[in-house]
Amino acid sequence: MARSPFRSWEGREPFSMFERVSLHAIGGEQLLLCRVRYEPGATVPRHSHADTEQVMLMLEGELEMTVGDETRTLHAGDTVVVNRGVEHELHSEDGCAFIEALSPVPLDHVGDRDADLVLGPDGGRLHVER
Question: Most exposed: 37, 64, 71, 119, by fewest CB within 10 Å?
Fold first, then answer.
């Protein structure tokens, strides 16, 4: 399984990154794709990713997000780009779900490196630790 490019999140427990925030991830050498769920009341405090760019697509619910000094309420179909090094914070009063893509792969978003990463000849050398 670890060498197969095909994976499924079905039947797998999500990885808990923060209180009330969980995700499933799959990544390769340069990109990580995550399905993220915020339970009601979830907050991720202001932070930045020094080396990683993040693109999000809202699937359901509502998410209040501040990127830099701009705050918006996101709904299904909305997208946001967070460039590397830009501070951002998130809060969902009633819960939400979104897909995010991150590049290069931030290893703090990977719950199980054997099951969640499909590595090529570079062996993940471009991945970043937080």
Answer: 71
